[in-house]
Amino acid sequence: MADSELTTDASVDARSESTADAPDAVMELEGVTKRYGSETAVRDLSVSVRDGELLTLLGPSGCGKTTTLRMLAGLERPSEGTITLADDEVAGPSTYVKAEERGVGIVFQDFALFPHLSVRENVAFGLTDHDGDETEERVDELLDLVDMPGMGDRSPDQLSGGQQQRVALARSLAPEPDILLLDEPFSNLDVRLRVEMREEVRRILKEAGVTAVSVTHDQEEALSISDRVAVLEDGRLEQIGDPESVFEHPESRFVASFLGQAGFLSARVGETTVDTCIGSYDRSLLKGLSDGYTGAMVDVLVRPDDLRAVPANEANANGAIVRRQYTGPSFIYHVELDNGDVVRCLHNHAEDMDVGEPVTVDLVSDHSLAWYPAKG
Amino acid sequence: MATSDRLDRLRNDAGDDGDEATSFSLAVVAGAVAAVVSLPVVVLLVRASDYGLGHLLGLVTQPSSVQVLVNSLVLTGIVTVGCVAVGVPLAVLTVQTDLPFRRFWTIVGALPLVVPSYIGAFTFIAAFGPRGELADLLAPLGIERIPAIYGLHGAALVLVLFTYPYVFLTTRAALLSFDGTLVEAARTLNHSRWGAFKRVTLPQILPGITAGTLLASLYALSDFGTPALMRYQVFTQQIYVAQRSLGVPEGYPAMLSLQLLAVVAVVLALESRIGGSTTAYISRGSRQPNRIRLGAWKWPALAFTTSVAVLGLGVPLGVLGWWLYRGGESVFQFDPAVAWNSLKVAVAAALAATLMALPVAGYAARSNSPVSTVVDRLTYVGYAVPGVVLGLALIYLTTSADLLTWWLPVGGDSAQSLLRSVYKTVPLLVFAYVVRFLPQAVGTIRSSVLQVDPKLTEAARTLGRSSTGAFREVTLPLIAPGVAAGAALVFLTTMKELPATLLLSPIGFETLVSYIWLVREAGSYGAAAIPALVLVGVSALSMVVILAQERYNG
User: Fold this and answer.
1) Would the CB atoms of A73 and B478 count as touching at under 8 Å?
2) Strand duo A358-363 + A307-311: pairing
3) Do A112 and B17 count as a contact with CB atoms less than 8 A apart?
4) Measured between beta carbons, which residues in chain B are less than 8 angstroms from residue A79?
5) pTM of the model
6) Given the DSSP bridges, would you call strands A211-216 and A54-58 parallel, antiparallel or unpaired?
7) Environment class of residue B507 by beta-carbon count within 10 Å: exposed (0-12), middle (13-18) or buried (19+)?
8) Cβ separation A99–B458 shorter than 8 A
9) Is residue B92 domain-shared with residue B182, that is, in the same domain?
């Protein structure tokens, strides 16, 4: 699934470096809260956006991520808290800098290209301080950057979805904003184009060297394009970090479930081992397990690729297949274990087992696993 | 996708774009416009209250007033039923059956709307009245008498013929947007064709039928020309007569006007109740149901469509053509200055209405506050106030000596003399047109503002434009076609407005409409041919504008 893409991504090293250096923050949110009447859309959010990074706000619909983005852009005013951009306070109890004076670029979900202007006029719209020749030059430069040279005279309705997105990017990058905001940038593209444009948008942002904040509800998209991911739930920040750490070591059950097909395996923590109904493992399997948990019950996070199921006879089996999902390249088998836990196991498409078949589930993971104190 | 989530709705409800100053000034301008256009109704109320409740009640209960009320209600009722009886079958025939030449009948079915009803009534009297064209034609055949056209049946016939297209068009629209798979679903669930129509189609198209019916009944209630020509005593006709006669009791026209407004208010209240209940689940499919085969019923169906077309289009156009052909010299007595006068006031009204509609429409489209709703509704006062009532109110406003001193303690006298100076002048006439037709401009402009994605304005803001800059460079170019259409509608409807023109035109100032009225009274019908045909052409143009606008918005 998503993590296979991550390991092949060449920029992984660069990312961990940038995490270590922690360069200056371009934008800083301090205790930002937004209320609409009695509803709270964003609660006490504090995040800093680092110079040159692509930070993605990830969360389900209605988690407050778009509201946050609009507050960054100056299209909404926070109810509480402060927002600082390039060391200037742009929103706070007594300050509010309007969108047009903020130096923030935004790429809208449906791109919002001006239908009455050509591609060239759209890109030039924000270049009000330049004279004619400079403007022409800058527009050409940007059309090259987004790989659309010579298409400046078209009108937006003659463009495909991907091209519209390129123009929207060029338009918002033209005035060299301090920060670029992307609102669900890929949700209006069809699935194949989406994967292609992810790579392309990341390339354009990196080439332009702009700091960017994007918003999405698609975990695969967030993990594959971002330098850092911030997971939001019900207006609150759940976890922020680089994609690998958030995926591998989610700090809450919500983050674990939201990022991928999470299964939970109940386990008892012993003196030296962790005992589950599929076997006993060394305590080092669980990341950061303290002595205080000895004797306690915990739930261990297992993803489909961490487990394998092997057909077995009734006597040796520790579970049975209750459902199978065929996805083409692979099967995901849902196995109900003897203790009632349901986990998912990833298999290639050739390994065909039937619903009801008794199986032995084994842990095949080669990394430490995240865990949570057992509920109730 | 996540575009319509919970927070989006909250955001829209809050209407918070972080720019209070601009929306405040917009609200003030929009509020001022609304206050000015609702002035006439206030004047009417103040004037009526001068007479005291007892006096007014006495007038309301006197037998002749009761008769007028009953006549108005009877006429409106008959017209309403007649419009449904003609409009709905015609819509079903042209949308859902294999009637031959459906496109032709669709156009012909809508066309009577382009004949202003007073011109329709005029031609019917000319054709079927005593010593009319038809009587002349039939006389050699030994037919001495044809039934008299005057009275209730004439007024009702003419009004049905020229207002049923409202019902026809709204029913058609409902039928066309109706998802045919629903009928198929009903039929697979063991319903006959008729059963499916009754239980599935009818409930879905009922709001469309009702909307058209209410338009038609509102028209019947407020139309002045038809009942006046047909000599049938209803509110509009009585108000006009009472205003021009000397011997009527004091306050009688004002009282009749208020009564008429009350009846209109009831009709509008019905409309808004029914309009509010149409936001139910709408099936999104666009498949049309299979056409119903008429078989032998084709012939009665064709007879029906043909007779509607002959009466609604053939008679008025035939009579006007006949006058043109046979009129001789009187046809060309027509003075072009009259057309020029019509053009001038219509252009002035269109420009003024557009300028006033822009802030109101912009405010109503972008704000959800209760204030914006009130402002928006107030500009619709002109839509609800019949032209003859509006004319009367403006005459009161400019002629009553003490009206303003009552609520303007300081400077009331000079304001009053200023008002007196505009009585029966072109500016007052233009103001009346603006009040009456402002809703058309507000409606078209508002719907085109709503078509503009608010994200476009936000994009312009983040690219360094102020809110006025964003309006000028993004919103205005995009709504330009809507603004132009609104102005064109006001222009065209002003051209054919009758009662306010008759009441408020300066002495000696003739427009096409007042000219037709004049030559009719003088009995020289031939002279009316050219101006009447011009007005029919003008109405046809306004239909084209409305249809083009609908396509643009769709």
Assistant:
1) no
2) antiparallel
3) no
4) none
5) 0.76
6) parallel
7) exposed
8) yes
9) yes
Is the per-residue pLDDT at B24 higher than 80?
no
Angstrom distances, CA of residue B319 to CA of A205, B134, B170, B325, B332: 73, 10, 29, 10, 17
Give A204 to chain B, closest Cα distance, Å. Answer: 19
Does residue B17 sit at the A interface (CB-CB below 8 Å)?
yes
Give every CB contact of residue B287 below 8 A, 6+ residues apart in sequence: B179, B180, B181
Query: Which of B5, B14, B462 is closest, CB to CB, to A99?
Result: B462
Q: Six-digit token pair at A372?
A: 């949570």
Q: What is the pLDDT of residues A69-106, one digit of tens each?
A: 999 998 889 999 999 998 899 999 888 988 888 889 99
**Mean pLDDT of the B138-157 span:** 77
| Residue A330 confidence (pLDDT) | 87
Return all residues near A135 (Cβ < 8 A) that are at least 6 apart: A124, A127
Strand order in the sheet with A279-282: A279-282, A273-276, A263-269, A297-302, A371-373
Mean pLDDT in residue range B499-513: 92
Examine residue B459 and state whether it is found in any structural domain, yes or no: yes
Q: What is the torsional sign of CA B403, B409, B414, B415? A: negative
For residue B554, what pLDDT band results from cuts at 50, 70 and 90? Answer: very low
What residues does A27 pair with on adjacent strands? A49, A85
| Helix or strand holding residue B344 (H, E) | helix B336-366
Asked whether residue B106 is domain-assigned, the answer is yes
The answer, for A135 touching chain B at a CB cutoff of 8 Å, is no
Same domain? For B139 and B214 the reply is yes
Within 8 A of B466 by CB-CB distance, chain A residues are 100
Q: What is the ipTM of this complex?
A: 0.73
pLDDT tens column, B169-181: 889 888 887 777 7
Residue with the larger pLDDT of the pair B163 and B279: B163
Q: Where in chain A is the domain with CATH 3.40.50.300?
A: 2-103+177-258
C-alpha–C-alpha distance, residues A200 and B305, integer Å = 62
> What pairs with residue A34 in β-bridges?
A42
Put simply, the answer to whether B460 touches A125 (Cβ < 8 Å) is yes
pLDDT in tens, A301-325: 998 889 988 888 888 888 999 998 8
Alpha carbons A339 and A266: distance in angstroms, whole number: 9
In our burial notation (b when 16+ CB lie closer than 10 A, e otherwise), range B251-270 reads: bbbbbbbbbbbebbeebbee
pLDDT of B276: 45
Q: Is B549 within the bounds of a domain?
A: yes
Q: Is B137 a residue whose pLDDT tops 80?
A: no
Query: How many Cα atoms within 13 Å fall on the side-chain side of residue A212?
Result: 28
Q: Are the C-beta atoms of A95 and A169 separated by less than 8 Å? A: no
Together in a domain, B50 and B138: no
